[in-house]
Design goal:
Elements (H helix, E strand, L loop, with lengths): L19 H8 L5 H27 L2 H4 L5 H14 L1 H9 L1 H16 L7 H5 L1 H13 L3 E8 L2 E4 L3 E4 L27 E9 L2 E5 L4 E3 L11 E3 L1 E7 L2 E7 L19 H21 L1 H10 L2 E5 L8 E2 L7 E5 L4 H21 L24 H22 L7 H23 L6 H17 L6 H22 L4 H12 L9 E2 L15 H11 L4 H4 L8 H7 L3 H14 L4 H14 L4 H7 L1 H14 L6 H8 L3 E2 L7
């Protein structure tokens, strides 16, 4: 930093600490405005340090900057903006994708690797950030920034689109939900000059000049502005960037602009209005803090019968969310990602657990074994989701009340099961243990709150369904036990005494495919009971046996799952479906062993089938195995 511009010197950044009261407030899910401001200020300092580190690293390696000016020129422009209008630089450093860019680029530099684009296009984004800050500060300047596939991004403002034959489309990739991979001829990566003189702002790639509208948020020839959507409920206002432009808005790798069509934009506006109304009504404390800690949403295409979302610890204040079917689903996703954002910000100030990458935990919200870090994040995120559905279930006159009862029953049990195991994990720090205690103090009493019996029963069955499927795919039974049981069956002997059967450690490699059709059908039956019979076949992966099970026709469902296993004896969803149906349709141990030790039943069945002595129906084998003493539990440490 040049002399005389000390306010941006990293060495003079404030020291950020979080006190016990704010720590506990975040842990128990309240987290007032002051605590969120503290987290946001810490993120600003962290990002500024990363920007300075990138500047220094690129300055030492001319190859890393490619055809662009030295990075110190970008730093100097940032310093000018800071001196003229500090709020412009604060806004830039608070932009979520400044964080994802900085994290992504520093990893490329330190590991000496190239990302999606040539390294200089990533390091050169520093010039685009500086230009964006200078524009907001009202400065006259000239700078050169990268161009990728004829698009040049000014972060937080919009993107210039040059007509060079490789222009991005406005809706490519939206139909499938995949990020479209564009062809990359040599001219894919170029540079453009950004000029601002008075009120005139232009971008020039040497072939075409794009003039930015007076209000950069609006569209113009060759320019897409960054859209803002605002929701109002009473005196509470939420204003978000609906970002379909920034190259660093993705969860993992940079992506090109994918402009939302006008009708999709309107869909999002209506959904956000409804979601914000519900958040304000259900979680007023969260609603107070939300505008401080959440500023950007990346829209993704709708996925049938479910809403997916993701966020990054480096993108504090943002989330990627697929378009949901209704406002309640969007509200739950926003709360979920807000929790992730809060926890990620906190973990930049406090260490809550050690860095153990072993994939060893079961969770109801993932189909694969998870490490301690992912589980900690999930517990906190779904604790917030539980709080939302609990509050919504208590609101009379809401159209979402029926599904809210189910979701509350489902998530309070799912989170508590994992929380119990996580609290005993040796990789927790003292702070991590305190954080989880605060969650348990609030969540524990919720487990005793009444919900309709039908909702509680459906929630428990859905959780057991998922856990059995996880065991089938990620636990491997002892080979000696499998051989012993297969030999006894083939010889017509009773099942030998086995004693206690401990669970094996999970493997991340799944044995078979899994889908969530039964859970999706359950939710459909609650949200659209009239249309359920007509729409069930639209649910991905749903079979007639699944429909029979969710409809309460358990004997018919069992017959359907037997037929599915006859066609595909390895199908995890059919094995667990048969266990669910038998546990409701008949007495005896068959249903229980299929739900609590399904990996053993399938392994023995495979061995018998290979030897030509398989039973007529899988449940005969399950009934022969009988009640087993196992290490079954809903989560593992």
């Amino acid at each position: 930093m040049p002399a005389g511009q000390k306010q941006m010197t990293p060495g003079e950044l404030p020291v950020h600490r979080i006190g016990t009261a704010d720590f506990d407030a975040i842990a128990n899910g309240t987290g007032d405005i002051a605590a969120l401001r503290l987290l946001r200020e810490a993120e600003r300092s962290r990002r500024l340090l990363l920007v300075r580190a990138i500047t220094d690293l690129v300055a030492k390696d001319p190859v890393a900057r490619g055809p662009l000016a030295p990075p110190d020129e970008a730093w100097d422009l940032l310093a000018r903006a800071q001196n003229s209008a500090p709020e412009a630089v604060d806004l830039l450093l608070g932009h979520p994708y400044t964080g994802t860019w900085a994290g992504y680029t520093i990893r490329l530099l330190r590991r000496q690797i190239t990302g999606v684009c040539p390294l200089w296009t990533h390091t050169g984004h520093l010039h685009a950030l500086a230009a964006a800050a200078a524009i907001r500060a009202g400065l006259d300047f000239t700078a050169t920034i990268p161009v990728w596939a004829s698009t040049a991004m000014l972060p937080g403002l919009g993107v210039a689109r040059f007509q060079d034959g490789s222009e991005c489309r406005d809706n490519r990739g939206l139909a499938t939900g995949r990020d479209f991979r564009y062809p990359e001829p040599p001219e894919t990566y170029m540079v453009a000059e950004v000029r601002r003189t008075g009120t005139v702002l232009e971008l020039d790639n040497g072939r075409q000049i794009v003039r930015v509208p007076a209000d950069p948020a609006t569209d113009g020839p060759g320019w897409w502005g960054l859209r803002q959507v605002t929701a109002v409920s009473g005196d509470r206002v939420l204003s978000l960037c609906l970002d379909d432009l920034d190259p660093y808005r993705g969860s993992f790798e940079p992506v090109l602009p994918q402009r939302l069509p006008a009708d999709e934009l309107e869909n999002w506006r209506h959904l956000l209005d409804e979601a914000w109304r519900l958040i304000v009504r259900c979680l007023p404390d969260t609603a107070d803090a939300f505008p401080i800690g959440f500023s950007s949403l990346v829209p993704r295409p709708m996925q049938p019968f479910r809403t997916t979302s993701a966020s990054s610890g480096e993108a504090f204040g943002s989330a990627v969310i697929s378009r949901p079917a209704d406002g309640a689903s969007l509200a739950a996703s926003l709360v979920h990602e807000f929790q992730h954002n809060r926890l990620s910000g906190l973990m930049h100030l406090r260490q809550l657990h050690g860095d153990d990458p072993t994939e060893r935990f079961y969770t109801a919200w993932r189909d694969d074994p998870r490490p301690v870090g992912g589980v900690f994040q999930g517990v906190y995120a779904f604790f917030g989701v539980t709080a939302f559905w609990r509050a919504l279930a208590r609101l009379e006159g809401e159209p979402f009340q029926r599904i809210a009862h189910f979701e509350f029953a489902y998530w309070r049990q799912a989170v508590w099961q994992v929380l119990e195991v996580l609290r005993a994990d040796p990789w927790l720090t003292v702070d991590g243990g305190r954080f989880l205690r605060r969650i348990a103090e609030k969540l524990g009493p919720w487990r005793r709150e009444p919900v309709p019996t039908s909702s509680a029963t459906a929630a428990s069955a859905a959780l057991l369904d998922h856990y059995a499927g996880w065991r089938l795919r990620h636990l491997r039974p002892d080979a000696l036990v499998v051989r012993t049981l297969a030999a006894a069956w083939s010889a017509g002997r009773p099942r030998p005494a086995l004693g206690f059967l401990p669970d094996a450690d999970p493997t991340p490699v799944p044995d078979g495919l899994w889908h969530h059709a039964r859970l999706d059908l359950t939710r459909l039956s609650l949200t659209d009971p009239i249309g359920f019979v007509r729409r069930w076949q639209d649910v991905p992966g749903a079979t007639s046996a699944d429909f029979a099970y969710v409809s309460g026709q358990f004997t018919q469902a069992a017959e359907g799952y037997r037929a599915e296993l006859s066609a595909d004896p390895d199908s995890p969803t059919a094995w667990t479906g048969l266990g669910l149906a038998l546990s409701r349709a008949v007495t005896g141990p068959a249903g229980s062993v299929l739900l609590h030790q399904p990996e053993l039943v399938r392994a023995v069945h495979r061995r018998l089938a290979a030897g030509g002595t398989a039973p007529d129906t899988p449940d005969k084998l399950a009934g022969w195995l009988g009640w087993l003493r196992t290490g079954t539990r809903p989560a593992r440490s």
